[in-house]
Write a structure and sequence with these properties.
Number of domains: 3
Shape: globular
Structural class: alpha+beta
Strand content: 15-25%
Largest sheet: 8 strands, mixed
Oligomer: single chain
Distance between the termini: 20 Å
Order of helices and strands: HHHHEHEEHEEEEEHEEEHH
Length: 349
């Protein structure tokens, strides 16, 4: 198979040339937003083409070395060739997976929210376990993750948390996680050691790139400031630095109280608000498409996507793809790649 036909590198190189001609125009920066998008598109295309050209070059070198070793009967080079071939195969696997990313926001930073379900301490502890899982996944995957807001539980765990995962394709990967996550285990909080089922909701939002794509009228916002609270509700700030922003037309609320500066909390809350507004628009479009097609859209809390069973047996199962593994410890420690890949590949076609 000719990879260049499959990935259409020639047309991408033609687009790069056209963008370079446009970038040389003297009036390019008369529209800063359009110029920024053009430069971003050009940089992304160049990175894509350079990556695939580099893989082709490496593959040719491996093939030439293999032919040379066969001709000279040199078996000593075989281990290094096998290692290089395995490295190429892994790089190809990751890049081919990115071909399924077709959404307009897939390349962006992600804002992930975890909400404990009904069940008090049990569900709040489960929400904290999920937050740790995503932090470990980000670390394993080379993404920069930062908790931008958190509401701690009454006794343990957390009621909700907001996590920013920065890096290319973060939203493309993490959108596979939105939905309800179910945990079955022996409760560490139950003296009778009974088995409990806990639920948590995960939201995944694409970060907004500014007011151009999401119009936010300042007159539509109610901004309240209050003192940031610590565990158990005690105040940890003597000044009002926490910020709550309510978008009056939709009722969407964004809160941030992690930073010491009221201005920083306001900027973070606005970032989350814009992301929620993008998500709302995405849902509206999906519902409109479903209405036209006559499809049923289930309520978000009813959309249980994955079960994590720690007792009476060990199993993580994704209900959308059927993928399952008995290595629950690895999954909860951030080894999500097989689950994410199975979901993304299931959306193709």
């Amino acid at each position: 198979m000719n990879l260049w036909c499959v990935f259409d590198l020639a047309s991408k190189e033609q687009e790069i040339a056209a963008l370079e001609r446009r970038s040389a125009s003297s009036d390019l920066w008369n529209d800063p937003e359009a110029a920024r998008k053009l430069m971003q598109r050009m940089a992304g295309l160049k990175e894509w083409v350079d990556t695939w050209r580099g893989i082709a070059s490496r593959a040719r070198e491996v093939a030439e070395l293999a032919d040379l070793a066969i001709q000279e009967g040199d078996a000593s080079i075989q281990p290094s060739l096998q290692q290089e071939a395995a490295s190429l195969d892994e790089q190809l696997r990751k890049l081919e997976l990115q071909l399924v990313f077709s959404g307009p926001y897939d390349e962006r930073t992600a804002i992930l929210a975890v909400h404990a379900g009904a069940g008090g301490t049990e569900s709040q502890d489960w929400a904290q376990m999920l937050l740790r899982m995503y932090l470990r996944w980000a670390e394993r995957s080379g993404y920069k993750a930062q908790v931008i807001d958190m509401s701690t539980g009454d006794e343990a765990g957390l009621k909700s948390a907001l996590l920013e995962v920065a890096g290319r394709w973060a939203y493309g990967y993490l959108k596979a996680e939105r939905g309800v996550h179910r945990l079955v285990r022996i409760s560490p909080f139950d003296a009778s050691h009974a088995r409990h089922t806990s639920f948590a909701l995960v939201e995944v939002l694409p970060e907004s790139e500014g007011d151009v794509e999401v119009q936010v009228n300042p007159d539509d916002l109610r901004i309240d400031v209050f003192r940031a609270g610590g565990h158990g509700g005690q105040n940890v700030q003597k000044t009002s630095t926490a910020v709550r922003i309510t978008h009056l037309p939709t009722g969407i609320v964004a809160i941030c109280q992690n930073e010491r500066s009221q201005w920083q909390n306001k900027e973070t809350a606005l970032k989350v608000l814009r992301a929620r507004l993008i998500n709302l628009e995405m849902k509206r479009r999906q519902e409109e498409q479903a209405r036209i097609k006559g499809e049923h859209i289930s309520a978000e809390w009813g959309n249980q996507i994955r079960s994590y069973v720690l007792h009476p047996y060990q199993m993580v199962k994704d209900h959308r793809t059927g993928y399952e593994t008995s290595d629950t410890s690895a999954v909860l420690d951030g080894e999500l790649a097989p689950l994410l890949e199975a979901y993304l590949l299931s959306t193709v076609g």
